[in-house]
Amino acid sequence: MFKYILKRLGYMLLALFVIVTVTFFLMRLAPGSPFASERNFPPAIEEKLNETYGLNNPWYIQYKDYLIDAATFNFGESMKYKARSTNDMIAESFPVSLTLGIEAMLIAIGMGVLLGVISALYHNKFPDYAATIIAVLGISVPSFILASVMQYFLAYKLDLFPTAGWNGFIYSILPAFAIALAHMGFIAKLTRSSMLEQSNSDYVKMARAKGLGKWKVVFKHSLRNALLPVVTYLGPLTAGVVTGSFIVEQIFAIPGLGKHFVQSITNRDYTVIMGTTVFYSIILLFTVFIVDILYSIIDPRIKLKGEKKS
Amino acid sequence: MAKKVIEVKDLHVHFKTFSGTVQAVRGVNFELFEGETLAIVGESGSGKSVTSNALMKLIPQPPGIYAAGEILLNGTDLIPLTDKEMSKIRGNDISMIFQDPMTSLNPTMKVGKQITEVILQHKTISRSEAKIKAIELLNKVGIPFPEKRYSQYPHEFSGGMRQRVVIAIALAADPKLLIADEPTTALDVTIQAQILELMKEIQETSKTSIIFITHDLGVVANVADRVAVMYAGQIVEYGTVNDIFYNPKHPYTWGLLGSMPDLDNEAEERLYTIPGTPPDLIHPPKGDAFAARNEFALAIDYEMEPPMFKVSDTHYAKTWLLHEQSPNIEMPHIVRKRIDSFLAKEAMHHD
Ligand SMILES: Nc1ncnc2c1ncn2[C@@H]1O[C@H](COP(=O)(O)OP(=O)(O)OP(=O)(O)O)[C@@H](O)[C@H]1O
Ligand SMILES: [Mg+2]
After folding, report:
1. pLDDT tens digits along A198-231
2. pLDDT tens-digit series, residues A105-162
3. Which atom of ligand 1 is nearest to the CA of B43?
4. Would A309 be classed as within a structural domain?
5. Domain, as residue range, for A129
6. Chains A–B, number of C-beta pairs less than 8 Å apart
7. CB of B90 closer than 8 Å to CB of A209
8. Which residues pair with B51 in a beta bridge?
9. Which GO terms describe its molecular function (chain B) (predicted)?
């Protein structure tokens, strides 16, 4: 187990290195610079700025500095906003995104599994059709359209929710749904097919032959096995929720990490891009890692490599 | 006289499918007494599993329909019972051993829990007592180190060991009737023999009645008291083991007996096989369903379904050959020889 974790951590470092490198070169390849956007600096000042931030050094020096910065998590100050360190920006905005993300994941998993189970239990009956329609709508409507539609009808027209901003739980409901719905639909379909497969299996028939009631069979037997594919989906789900937050945070003007990330890219704010990229990468790599461990706990047939067989 | 545990009267089970109604079970009758073993034998698709699932009301509805008949458990008809009422009977009065031990255990639940689950469902007994009982059961079905095995998962067991666990689960609530649907088919030959031995032990030590389903008559001889031979959803011959092995009357039974595999002298002796395939159960043929495959078929076989003819008090067969006006037809010589050599070998085993 210990050996396995070490090996995984090694791979994660390698992956992180590749991501950081690719980001660096993409960043440099994109036209423009942090100081090129709105204000027109006199050339002398721009020269001075470039020098301060080391942008005049040859690329390999910049790359080396950049790697050292990344390795020490010292991303420096924002190039756009004076006297704001990248780390502070992340520390400030991440809790907002985290709250939103967790809410979205809970909605996606909770409602997705519920819909899927209902579908499977009422296979080819009305509740199945209703749940399937919800799931398909969720999957096929893009989150930005959903966000705008909900904003217009539920917030603006009906005034049930605040339109935008971040000022308490009620502000998080619409954006969380906007991020979650596509994933909810996907999880619902996944759970449905996996539940149906389990319900036709011999051990479920055996559980019925033991005299267990319908619901006991579902909760004690089929559901746990049916949820294995859903656990596998937790990794991609996290990635999806993160990327979903980029757009949705913009639409709802939420001061989260996603918003900063998008802005930093349009601003060519190199230090912030680097900081947020490294941060996101670590989160995603860790999620995948944790999902793998979780999976081996839920499914006793899976033994992590390097773990001793009993 | 022993107590009658279960009586099936004129049972019909149908399945509604897109291509029509499959008449899987078409009027099955039998009865079973306390401590007795009934073997149901027949080719694939003859309706053995449907019959046994019907006894526990485990036929999925839809597509299944209990079209007619009664299943009397200690005198109570099970057909009109609700699923909730049935769940008090399943696992408790009637339990079942399935064919494939590789898939009939829940892969993510510890074996011990799969046993105690049944005990706790049907008996008022504490968890720790249930655990003690489960370990006793594991020991009883011949699993070494039962305490350790109790907290292992199914994938840590071999096929034969899993089938022993399944048997332990089936016995957990001391059922009156145990249905074993081809319990050895998925296992290799040596393990098969061990499981059969275990089934015999259970039959001898407990008063449980057993319905033993198989397509191999050879397996039946030393397990069963009575044999029901099934063809196309009906019982075509019914009798004690001796009736069936020494005095079989139905040509289909002859075919089954003649095709019993013989491991020793397969080279010299050609198997007697039944030509053709079973009939379509969506449109069952007129007359005797076996007629088209029967080399001794009479003209009337294509016109009218034969009734159950009584051979003796224990022995019945559904063939026109038993009618007093029909020609006197004996079973083929090759089948006789096959049965004799089988019985001789069985006798040798017992000494
Ligand atoms: N759910 C179902 N839907 C439609 N037809 C079914 C269904 N279950 C069983 N049947 C039909 O009922 C008939 C009897 O099947 P059954 O499984 O009882 O055969 P069996 O005697 O147990 O055969 P085997 O030795 O292969 O297990 C078959 O023709 C089968 O196609
Ligand atoms: Mg079968």
Report:
1. 988 999 999 999 999 888 999 889 998 999 889 8
2. 999 999 999 999 999 988 888 999 999 999 999 999 888 888 889 888 888 888 888 8
3. 25
4. no
5. 86-298
6. 76
7. yes
8. none
9. ATP binding; ATP hydrolysis activity
Residues 6+ apart with CB under 8 A from A31: none
- Which of A41-50, A242-251, B38-47 has the weakest average pLDDT? A41-50
Per-residue model confidence (pLDDT) at position B327: 80
pTM of the model: 0.81
* A203 interfaces chain B, CB cutoff of 8 Å: yes
Pair A111, A14 in one domain: no
Domain finish residue from A18, A40, A72: A72
Q: Which residue intervals of B90-224 are DSSP H helices?
A: 111-122, 127-140, 146-150, 159-171, 189-205, 217-220
Per-residue pLDDT averaged across A289-306, rounded? 79
Question: In the numeric block, which tokens belong to residue B137?
Answer: 């059961």
pLDDT in tens, B92-134: 999 999 888 889 999 999 999 999 999 999 989 999 999 999 9
Peptide bond into B62 cis (omega under 30): yes
A295 to chain B: closest CA residue = B108
* Residue minimizing CA distance to atom 19 of ligand 1: B45
- Looking at every residue in chain A, the average pLDDT score rounds to 85
Model confidence at A308: pLDDT above 70:
no
- What is the pLDDT, as a whole number, of residue B165? 93
Q: Residue written as tokens 């390795």?
A: A71
Contact status, residue B32 vs residue B6, Cβ threshold 8 Å:
yes
The confidence score (pLDDT) of residue A4 equals 82
Cα gap A160→B66, rounded to integer Å: 53
Looking at residue A108, what is its pLDDT? 94
Indicate whether A116 and A63 sit together in one domain. no
Whole-number Å distance between alpha carbons of B297 and B306: 12
Sign of CA dihedral B15, B17, B22, B24: negative
- The pLDDT of residue B48 is 93
Res B71: pLDDT: 94
Are residues A128 and A246 part of one domain? yes
Amino acid sitting at position A235: G
- Going by C-alpha positions, the residue among B285, B344, B119, B2 that lies closest to residue A211 is B119
The angle at the Cα of B269, spanning B265 to B274, to the nearest 5 degrees, equals: 120
Q: Is residue A60, in this structure, part of any structural domain at all?
A: yes
Q: Which residue of B has its CA nearest to A223?
A: B108
Q: Whose CA is nearest to atom 11 of ligand 1?
A: B24
- As for how many domains chain A has, the answer is 2
Range of lowest pLDDT (A244-253, A263-272, B169-178)? A263-272
Regions in chain B scoring below 70 on pLDDT: 1, 262-271, 350-351
In a domain, A303, yes or no: no
Asked if A130 and A240 sit in the same domain, the reply is yes
Residue A220 in contact with partner chain B when CB distance is under 8 A: yes
Do residues A203 and A255 both lie within one domain? yes
List Cα–Cα distances, B215 to A2, A234, B41, B44, B252, in angstroms.
Answer: 52, 47, 5, 7, 13
DSSP A218-284: IIIIIHHHHTHHHHHTHHHHHHHHHHHHHHHHHHTT--SHHHHHHHHHHTT-HHHHHHHHHHHHHHH
Residues A150 and A34 occupy one common structural domain: no
The domain spans of chain B are 94-174
Considering the domain architecture, whether residues A43 and A179 belong to the same structural domain is answered as: no
Q: What is the CATH number of the domain that holds A117?
A: 1.10.3720.10
Quick one: which H or E segment has residue A97?
helix A86-121
Question: Residue with structure tokens 């004129």?
Answer: B10
A212 shares its domain with A271: yes
